[in-house]
Write a structure and sequence with these properties.
Length: 423
């Protein structure tokens, strides 16, 4: 057994034996808030279905508030070349009672759960810090930063300089009034470079009030829109959020090895979309959870918690010929700009930075392009009209060609597929 394995087993044993009191306290301190007078929380501290942000739940249209409960902790993910990396991340625990939110769960997701919201609603987001199962020597707070949100008071911004972090075993509820539709993103802003590099990143978007009102544009009638455009010009049939991310595998290996972290020399070698490299990006199912490294570090078997799928979000885009496809694209890499193209498909940019491309005089400023470039923290909305596209499989990928593989290895890279069918 290596020194690192011995160290981790000792820390895990210590956490399991000496923090039993902390476990009880932590459960007692998980406190979920939702809606005026906490009307959206049941007797078990679980968010009621009518307030759930899950788009499969019909309730949000009938409630003035939307609510969600995230846990912040650590876990493992598997790269497309089967390499396992240690990560930090968020997990959706909205459907769990407070006494079912465990410490040390190793359930962190990458990318983080997608947050889909509706303009005009109040959004209550509870964050619970469930600690680090594999690094019990750390006592890092965590936050949620709603990146690009325009009316944020400092206390709810997740910036430690003007607010605070959520400590282990504690919960805090952020409040947002959703006045502006568009594509945003979210991440932890506590020790931001480290925690973002480690995987605390997620898709977030706000749908406009215009949704559900039929509008005809270009000879087609739409009921779903990116913005309150008034003319249906941002109407679409199918949509997909695509977050561009990348990781430095050496940074992650040194982190779990409890070694100094090479911030100055950070060089990402794994580029992904929605937390996966190609061909995993087009697998419609959640990826099997990694266990090999966890087994080694815990001495066989997952000693703390049970890992579910740590990479549940795919990047596969499917459409029927004639449909208009919306790509909600964002970049949360802390090291690189990325340029994205869609193999021979027409791309029209209709929004950027959660703003419709429209001049102060109301003039439409949409533009056609063959590629878009995004730096860290930027987002854009791209339309692809398939009416003149032949059915088939097309590739969406980065033109930064060195990020189409993992170093010299196949399997991996920032690429996915757009499948256009005839029916």
């Amino acid at each position: 057994m290596t020194t690192t394995q011995t160290f981790h087993r000792s820390l895990i044993a210590l956490a399991a034996t000496s923090s039993l009191g902390l476990l009880t306290q932590a459960h007692a301190e998980v406190f979920v808030q939702c809606g005026p007078n906490n009307a959206g929380v049941d007797a078990n501290g679980m968010i009621k279905a009518a307030y759930d942000v899950d788009p499969a739940v019909a309730g949000p249209k009938n409630a003035s508030s939307q609510c969600m409960h995230l846990a912040a902790g650590d876990g493992f993910i598997t790269m497309a070349d089967k390499r396992e990396l240690y990560t930090f991340g968020f997990t959706d625990v909205t459907k769990k009672a407070v006494n079912q939110v465990p410490l040390d769960s190793l359930d962190a997701n990458f990318s983080a759960p997608t947050i889909e919201l509706q303009q005009g609603k109040d959004f209550y987001l509870t964050l619970t810090n469930v600690s680090m199962a594999m690094r019990p020597d750390l006592f890092d707070p965590h936050t949620v930063h709603f990146h690009g949100f325009p009316q944020q008071p400092p206390v709810f911004d997740g910036m430690p300089e003007g607010s605070f972090g959520v400590n282990m075993g504690s919960s805090f509820t952020y409040y947002y009034k959703l006045n502006d539709p568009g594509t945003y993103l979210y991440h932890c802003h506590q020790e931001a470079t480290e925690h973002m590099q480690m995987g605390m990143l997620g898709n977030l978007y706000v749908k406009p009030l215009q949704d559900g009102t039929p509008k005809t544009y270009g000879g087609r009638t739409y009921t779903k829109f990116v913005y309150n455009d008034g003319d249906g010009s941002t109407g679409y049939d199918v949509s997909k959020p695509l977050q561009l991310v990348s990781m430095d595998s050496e940074f992650h290996d040194l982190h779990i090895g409890v070694q100094p972290l090479p911030f100055k020399n950070m060089r990402d070698d794994y580029a992904m979309i929605n937390g996966r490299g190609y061909p995993d990006t087009v697998n419609p199912s959640p990826l099997d959870p990694p266990t090999q490294k966890v087994d080694v570090l815990t001495g066989g078997g997952v000693a703390i918690g049970d890992i579910t799928s740590s990479q549940p979000i795919n990047a596969l885009i499917t459409a029927v010929k004639g449909e208009r496809v919306l790509l909600r694209m964002s970049n949360l890499s802390v090291t690189n700009y990325y340029t994205i193209t869609a193999q021979g498909l027409p791309m029209k940019v209709v929004g950027s930075g959660a703003r419709q491309l429209k001049g102060p005089d109301g003039k439409i400023l949409y533009y056609d392009t063959s590629s878009v470039t995004l730096g860290g923290g930027e987002s854009t909305e791209v339309m692809i009209d398939t009416s003149q596209v032949e059915p088939g499989t097309y590739f969406l990928y980065t033109t930064n060609l060195n990020f189409l593989s993992n170093g010299t290895e196949d399997n991996g890279g920032m690429m996915t597929e757009i499948v256009v069918s005839s029916i």
